[in-house]
Structure formats: structure tokens, C-alpha cells
Amino acid sequence: MRLTCHKLVVMILLTLVVFTVISGKAKAFHQGGAGECEGCHTMHNSYEGMPVTPTNPVGTAGVFLLKGSDASSVCLSCHQKSGDTSPASFHVSTADTDMPLGSPPRQLTPGGDFGWLKKAYTWIPALGTLPLTSSGDSHGHNIVAQDYGYFADSYKTTSPGGFYPSASMGCTSCHDPHGKYRRLADGSIAAGGTSIKGSGSLASGPDPDTQQSVGVYRLLGGVGYNPKSLGGGFAFSYNPPAAVAPDTYNRSESLTQTRVAYGSGMSDWCRNCHANIHTDALPTPLKHPAGSPNGSLGARIINYYDQYIKDGNLTGMEANAWLSLVPFEAGTSNYATLKSLVAATPTKGPSATDGTPTVMCLTCHRAHASGWDGSMRWNNRTINIVLNGLYTGGQAGQAFQPNAQGRTEQEALRSYYDFPTATFANPQRTLCYKCHLNGSE
Ligand code: HEC
Ligand code: HEC
Ligand code: HEC
Ligand code: HEC
Ligand code: HEC
Ligand code: HEC
Q: Ligand 4, atom 36: nearest CA belongs to which residue?
């Protein structure tokens, strides 16, 4: 392993970062694998006599010689940028100054903006009752990123249905910073083997061949993954899922949708830390099938998903049935199929010709965070998500606000990734109905 800190390398890297920021485009950094060591590490926390990490004095870098107080702060040094006015490529967090009270976070990636963890709401559910709250912590995965004001969950000390410690939760709990995991030509996933030629996440990305592999979906950790800082006992048992994201994945969905072709294995991957969630081990309200084989939609639900446009409108067809607020897995790990879903037929609904369509964890949740409790894609704690033509039901700013529950209309709209309320019926019930005709089917 080469750990030499050469000024030239640092300069090239800084130029790259500056260029990336100026052009607003996602310049490759990780390239599906480890990327430049100096992007995250600093050997002496010194560059031309100035500290690289503001919180540490020159000569003392962070843990593991990191350019931040902790691993996630290093990630956010690139993945959050104050002053972003709109969704910006690979940014997954909004700076505090860019989301004052009443204004939502600005990033719209499939995983979601961690800024929602800093938004808390209070409302009165029914006249004459006590106020309820929706804490920031309940909006997703609480990453510990001290330099950016993110702290461990104060209610959940471990992963529900599992025992992963919340105190150690960060970007590198899920993503391998060194991008070791790769997809080989035969479709298998390994932590070593042929060299990685690029990201394996995107529709236009390269395919593996016998000479070279590609990175796994979103650099996620695979079997055996366990950050060194965490100590033993938490090694992953499942590999990253098969999935393909569009090249432009961080965007408003006010006009067209962002199609991620989820293929297979997402639910098992989440079970690395939530082994017993929504299973018989927990009480019924939290019991829902997810992943293969129990989550298979079956012919009846496939048909229904394809026909359902909104409450009261069942005139949809397979070709335009996709709703990114209620995604499903195509039920295949065939990358040609997944890439063609993203690039050629982005609005295609579940179809038995593509695989075995399946309900999965990300049908209902976002992987990072969302505007709603439980990191849900929609507000599941209300009867109607649209009322009086508004997400807030017209009660925004009032104490009595059962619908959007303390959020402003703008915040609620952003939580729905800018889908206009006209996408839905008025009133519109929760999105469980995209698959279920009523509570019993
Ligand atoms: C995307 C950010 C990132 C990049 C790029 C990166 N590292 Fe790291 N590295 C980390 C983080 C975060 C940790 C702390 C891991 C933990 O919490 O256990 C770490 C830990 C380490 C460690 C000690 C722990 C271990 O896992 O062995 C070594 C050695 C290391 N990195 C070497 C390198 C080298 C060499 C490169 C370039 C090839 C590199 N890193 C590139 C983020 C990065
Ligand atoms: C020096 C800046 C920089 C740092 C530090 C950095 N990233 Fe990135 N990251 C990028 C850029 C640029 C992209 C988009 C282009 C690409 O994929 O290389 C990206 C993309 C990604 C992606 C999507 C990659 C794919 O193949 O789909 C993930 C996941 C990610 N970063 C996670 C992390 C994590 C976790 C850390 C901290 C351990 C981190 N990044 C640190 C610059 C950075
Ligand atoms: C609980 C696990 C988990 C944690 C923690 C996590 N990620 Fe992710 N991340 C994922 C998954 C899963 C996806 C794929 C989401 C999808 O396609 O729906 C993803 C996607 C991404 C992407 C691609 C854009 C997107 O949002 O879809 C980037 C960039 C990224 N993560 C960076 C980060 C950074 C930086 C952190 C820490 C600040 C972080 N992640 C923390 C699991 C995690
Ligand atoms: C590396 C371990 C890890 C992985 C992998 C992981 N989680 Fe978590 N998850 C946690 C921990 C720890 C908590 C409790 C602390 C918190 O909420 O941040 C948690 C909490 C949650 C919550 C409750 C959030 C809230 O605020 O109420 C949901 C929902 C969730 N996870 C869903 C998922 C989904 C879906 C996936 C797969 C995309 C996933 N998790 C993958 C560790 C993990
Ligand atoms: C059909 C929708 C659906 C699916 C599929 C689903 N969940 Fe959930 N999940 C929910 C709802 C609804 C809640 C309660 C959210 C709230 O209001 O806090 C929840 C809550 C959770 C919680 C928090 C539990 C707690 O004690 O607070 C975790 C963790 C979680 N889900 C993880 C997962 C994982 C992992 C998967 C995949 C194996 C998954 N979910 C699949 C709908 C779903
Ligand atoms: C992507 C489609 C999809 C969505 C969205 C969805 N479900 Fe399901 N649901 C299924 C499938 C598939 C099954 C299992 C097969 C069946 O029961 O027909 C199921 C089963 C159920 C069951 C029976 C569970 C059992 O153990 O018998 C209940 C109750 C349920 N869902 C409630 C919900 C609720 C509540 C929501 C919204 C939070 C929801 N579902 C969202 C697809 C979905």
C-alpha cells in the first residue's frame, strides 16, 4: 500500500475538486473503487502550512488520518455544499443555511437528503387533543458527522430488528469508502479479483468483462464488510443489490420521474442490520413481506399496480405504470434488462417478462432520509396525503394540521419530490393503495 503524500497529487486533486464544483457536473472521483487516497486522507493535516481539516491543528489529522473529525464528515466535505440552489448531482445533504425554518432541504436523490434529520415538526392531530411531534431523528438514518451537525439517534440505540449500534452509524456503515466490492463478468460479487474499471451504478456505465470488473451498486458494503473502527461482530452477511440508476439521478420530478431500476437483493441487503424487521419476530403492525420469495407481487398485484393511476382511476397500463414514490424490484439481476428499463422504458410497470416483480424495503422507505416519519416515501401517518388539492390540506401554518403535520406546503411538496398534487386524486389516500385495492387485498 502506497501512502506517500505528494504535493503534485494533492494539487491535481484540488484542481479536480474545484473543477467539479465549478462545472456542477459529477467528475469521477471514486471510479467505482478506492479513488485518490488524498481525497479523504491527509498524512500530516498540512498543505502549504495550513491545516487541511479546520477542526484539527496542523500536524494532527483526524482518526485514520482522515480529513475530518469522523468518516462521515469526510464524505460530506464533498457530498454537501452550502449555496446549492437546486439538486446538484452527487450531493446528498443540504447545509443548514440553505434550509431555514419552513424551507425544505434541496437534494432529490433516490436515497434522499440527510437534511431532513434536522427538521422537526409539531402539530395538533385533532381539535382538543395534545400536540404531536415528528422528530428529526425519526426521518431516517442518523449519520454521525460532527463537523456538519449530525449526531447519533437519540431514541433508537441500535437498528430495529437488529443490533447495529447507532453511535457508530455513518456513511461508511453502508458504503465501503475503499470500494472493494466489485461485480465480475459472471455476475458474481467479490471483495477482490479483476481490477475495477468504473462505477457499476449508472445506466451508461461500463459492463464487466473477463479483464476488468465494475464497482457494486453505490459502493455498498458486501459479505464480510465491517469498518475497522467498529470492531468485530457486525460483518455483513449479504452482498449489495443489483440495481441501475439513471445518469442524472438528482432532480425534481415535477415533470418526469427518476427511474431507478431496482433489480433484486435490496431487502436482504437491508437485513444486514435489520435481520428481524417486519417479520414474525415483531408485532403485526410492522409485518410486511419484502424481497424474495415472500414479497413477490404475483399476477393479481402486478395487474393492479399497472392499472392504478390514482384513487378512483384504474385506467393505467403497464407502459406508464411506474411511480417512483412506490418503486418495486423487477426481480432480476440481469443488467441488460435493468439498463434498458432505465434508458428505454423508464415508466414501465411491473412485468413478468422482466423477472419476478417484488415489493422491497425501498418500496416504502428511502435509504438515507425523507420528509416523513420512518424515512417513508410518503406520509403514512395520515388518512389522506392530498386534501383540498394540497398536501397540507390547506391547513399549512395552522396548529390544527392533521395532513402534512406541521410541514409547510413547500416542504411537503419537496418530500414528494415535487410531484404536483394533480398527480393524485383529491382527496388521495396513502400510497399503499398502489398495490392494495383495499385494506384486505
Ligand atoms: C472516500 C474516502 C476514502 C478514500 C478515497 C480512501 N480512504 Fe482510506 N479510509 C477512509 C475511511 C472513512 C477510513 C476509516 C474506516 C473505518 O472507520 O474503519 C479509512 C481507513 C483507512 C485505513 C485504516 C483502516 C483500514 O481499513 O485498514 C487505511 C490503511 C486506509 N484507509 C488507506 C487508504 C488508501 C491507501 C487509500 C487510497 C488507495 C484510501 N485509504 C482511500 C476513507 C477513504
Ligand atoms: C473528494 C470528494 C469526495 C469525497 C471526499 C467523497 N466523495 Fe463520494 N463522490 C464524489 C463524486 C465527485 C461523486 C460522483 C462521481 C463518482 O461517482 O465518482 C461521488 C459519488 C459517490 C457515490 C456514488 C458512486 C457510484 O458508483 O454510484 C457514493 C455512494 C459516494 N460517493 C459515497 C461516498 C462516501 C461514503 C464518502 C466518504 C467515505 C465519499 N463518497 C467521499 C466525491 C467525493
Ligand atoms: C443505511 C445505509 C446508508 C447510509 C448510512 C448512507 N447511505 Fe448512501 N446510499 C445507500 C443506498 C442503499 C443507496 C441507493 C439508494 C437508491 O438507489 O434508492 C445510497 C445512495 C447514495 C448515493 C447516490 C445518490 C442517492 O442518494 O441515491 C450517494 C452519493 C450516497 N449514497 C452517499 C452517501 C453519503 C455521503 C452518506 C453519509 C452522509 C451515505 N450515503 C449514507 C445506503 C446508505
Ligand atoms: C449498517 C447498518 C444498517 C443498514 C445496512 C441499514 N440500516 Fe436502517 N437503521 C440502522 C440503525 C443503527 C438504525 C437506528 C438509528 C437511526 O435511525 O439512525 C436504523 C433505522 C432505520 C429505520 C428507522 C428510521 C427512523 O428514523 O425511524 C428505517 C426505516 C430503516 N433503518 C430502514 C432501512 C432500510 C430500508 C435499509 C436498506 C436500504 C437499511 N435500513 C439498512 C442501521 C442500518
Ligand atoms: C409496505 C411498506 C413497507 C415495507 C415494504 C417495509 N417497511 Fe419498514 N416500515 C413501514 C412503515 C409504515 C413503518 C412505520 C413508519 C413510521 O410511521 O414510523 C416502518 C418502520 C420501519 C422501521 C422502524 C421500526 C421502529 O421500531 O421504529 C424499520 C427499521 C424498517 N421499517 C425497516 C424496514 C426494512 C429493513 C424493510 C425491508 C426488509 C422494510 N422496512 C420494508 C413500511 C414498510
Ligand atoms: C409494491 C406493492 C405493495 C405496496 C406498495 C404495499 N404492499 Fe402490502 N403487500 C404486497 C404484497 C406482494 C403482499 C403479499 C402478498 C399478498 O398479500 O397478496 C402484501 C401483503 C400485505 C399485507 C398482508 C400481510 C400478511 O402477513 O398477510 C398487509 C396487511 C399489507 N400488505 C399492508 C400494506 C400496507 C399498510 C401498505 C402501505 C404502508 C402496503 N401493504 C404497501 C405488496 C405491496
A: 270
